[in-house]
Every structure is written in C-alpha cells, then in structure tokens.
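Sync notes, pocket subgroup
Present: LS, DG
LS reminded everyone that the earlier model was apo-only. Rerun requested with zinc ion included. Inputs:
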Amino acid sequence: MNDFIFENGTKAYFGKHMVKTYLAGLLKNEGKTVMLAYGGGSIKKNGIYDEIMAELHKAGKDVVEFSGIMSNPTYEKVMEGASLARVKNVDFILAAGGGSVMDCCKAISLAARYDGDVWADFWAKKGTIDFPTIPLGIIMTVSGTGSEMNGGSVITNEALKVKGGFDYPQLNAKFALLDPLYTYSVSMKQMVSGSFDSLSHMMEIYFSLPNEDNVSDDITEALMRNVIRNLRAAIKNPEDYTARSNLVWDAAMAENRVIKMGKKTDFECHLMEHQVGAYTNCNHGAGLAVLHPVYYRHIYIYGLPKFVRFAREVWHVDDSGKTDEEIAREGIEKLADFIREIGLPATMRELGVKDKKELKEIAYSCGISPGCFKPDFSHEDILSIFEEAY
Ligand code: NZQ
Ligand code: ZN
C-alpha cells in the first residue's frame, strides 16, 4: 500500500430524527447568527425546513436565510452568499440539501473570510487555507456525492466554462446529520443518479494503482455490491428504510477518504463529466453514467487483472472457459446493462450536447488524471470517448 495520513474532521450523526435529537445542542456554542442555506425549495415542501427552523428557534439563534442554490452551483452564487455572510456577520453556516448546497456553503465559508481572488487562489489551483473559515454544519437531504463528509466543493465558473474543485480538509463540516428518512421525498431520477455517483466514486478509486493486496480494494468491492443491491431494492420500494439507509452510508463511505487511503485513484470520468456539465449543466450522476462504460472499454486492457477481478467479484461473471479479456469485457457490459436497467442515459446527446462539433472544445477543456491505467492518456483519447458516447 502507498503511504498516507488519514484525517476526517466531520462528526457524522446517522439515523432517524437526527435534527430533532441533536441540532439545537450542536449549535449551542456556535455563535448567535446562523445562515441557513438551501436550494430551490424542496425543504419547504417536505417539512425539513420547518423542523430545522423549530430547532434554530429553540437554540435562540438569529437566522439569516440564503436560498436558491442551484444544482451545479455557480461561482456567482458563492460570491452572493459570501457577501451576505459578511454583511450579516454570520457566525455559523448550516447547509440543508444535497451536494450542490453543501459545496456552495463550503465555498462561502472560505470566500467570506478571504480578501483575495478566491477562484484564482483556491479553485484554479490547489491553495493553502491557513486562516479560519466560517464553521459549517450539514443536514443532508439527498445522498450520492458524499460531500457531507469531505472538504470538496465543486463549483461552476460560468464565465470561464470550468467546473471543478479540490478537497480541502479545512472545509469539512464540523458535523453532518444524515437522516435517511429525509431522502424519501427525493425523485426516483435523482435517487438513481445520486446512487450512481456513489458507485462511480467507488470505481474511480478501485480502478487505480496499486493492484497488489490492499484494504481499500476489498472494502470497495463490498461497497460496490452494496450500492447495486440497495439501489435495486430502493427502486422497487423507495420507502425501504434498509435500502435508503445503506445508500446514504455508501455515499459517505465512498467520499469520506477512508477507501482512498493507499490508492492513487483515477477520477478521469469525473474530470470529463465536470466539463460536460460546465457546457451543458447536465445532471452529475447522469453524466457519469454515460461516460463510465465507454471510458472502461477504452482503457481496460491496460488494467486487465483489475477489470477481471471487478467482473468476478462485483458482477459475478461466470468465467469458465473464457479468456481474461472476455471476462473483463463482460464485467464492463454488466455495468452498462445495470445503467440501462436503472434508467440512466447512455449518450452525450441525452446530456444536452446538441452538435457533435462541440465535442472537441469540451474534450480539450478536460483535466487529465495522473492515475489512469492507460499510459499517456490524452485529450485525443477523451475526444474519441466523447465521439463514441455521442
Ligand atoms: O434544490 P432543491 O429544491 O432542494 O432540490 C434538489 C435538487 O433539485 C433535490 N432535493 C434535494 N433534497 C431533496 C430534494 N428533492 C426532494 N426531497 C429532498 N429531500 O435534488 C436535486 C439535486 O440536488 P443536488 O444537490 O444538485 O444533487 P447532488 O447531491 O447530486 O449534488 C450534485 C453536485 O455535487 C457535486 C456535483 O458536481 C454537483 O455539482 N459533487 C460534489 C462532490 C463533493 N463535494 O465531494 C463530489 C461529487 O463527485 C460531485 O462532483
Ligand atoms: Zn461524483
């Protein structure tokens, strides 16, 4: 295994009624003014907003509301939130939502306490956060990204047509309340795409060096099987608590850094999807679903033993009388079948790319992951993946 230092500063509270049980107590020593940040209003329809407000009042807080955080949050929205946080002297940010709200809030907590060019210093390159940011708490309402337990903040800079972000441990929330019941009102489409996002994170960690025996690969196989099994169960019955609670913890486990330890990781599909998202504003999990099988058909031969293992351990491919290449390819086709089965898209056109000619510009705007099994993986490779997926 590679060397590593493990750190996760987020305390997770997992289970039913976490807001009612813990929120007021957790905020006791966090200052008077709390910014409650949320998205387009789902929390007002499903009652989560009322539950949170009751606890904030119980805790005697002055509440500043910041709403309208969109999916794929923009840098403009971050700056709007940072300016509000400064003007209102916000002591604590409470993010109630999914990855978009969480990511936007992490960025606000940094931007509100930084006088320089936040994008240039922390998003265009990896910067150093050596000053206190506004402390943050998270109330997860939709699972998938795992943002609730990491310091990642994926932001879209519309002017530059760039979507991205780094994992800054200083931006980890102090606490995350993970109540699987809160996810019941999430649409089927979002539940499926969020769960595929989790599966994607697991695969992108698994398909990277080292390949020799390591804890991460073993845990990750179990997590991949778990997310596949429980997503099927949740599609059948969205109010299956066992399934929904497994999906919530799967998402956190994939991105709380535990399974990344000792692994190089290859987040190339994310780097590609983020740029497709920057150009089309497509749904994150849907974008990943389009790209994964095509990417793997393109690179599997360079990581053959791992793809054989994936086919056997995750998809239970019957390997008798087959060559390694046949087994590996069958595993990838099982993944593609699963994507069709759960109703996610398979083409770039479905993501909103209207003209094949756009593909070149998007391809050349993507980052290149140093962890890819294929040596010298290039923008030409990305273009051919995009064309195949068109
Ligand atoms: O905005 P509202 O009205 O709340 O509706 C949201 C939104 O439309 C809705 N929703 C959330 N909770 C709900 C609910 N609807 C009904 N009931 C509830 N309980 O769900 C929709 C999608 O929400 P969003 O937060 O956009 O989705 P997701 O959690 O998939 O987050 C996507 C963003 O996270 C980034 C993605 O790139 C994308 O920008 N990611 C962040 C990562 C990280 N920080 O670690 C890693 C990921 O790879 C990803 O890149
Ligand atoms: Zn993701």
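DG: The chain has two domains: 11-184, 188-389.
LS: The radius of gyration is 21 Å.
Action: DG to write up.
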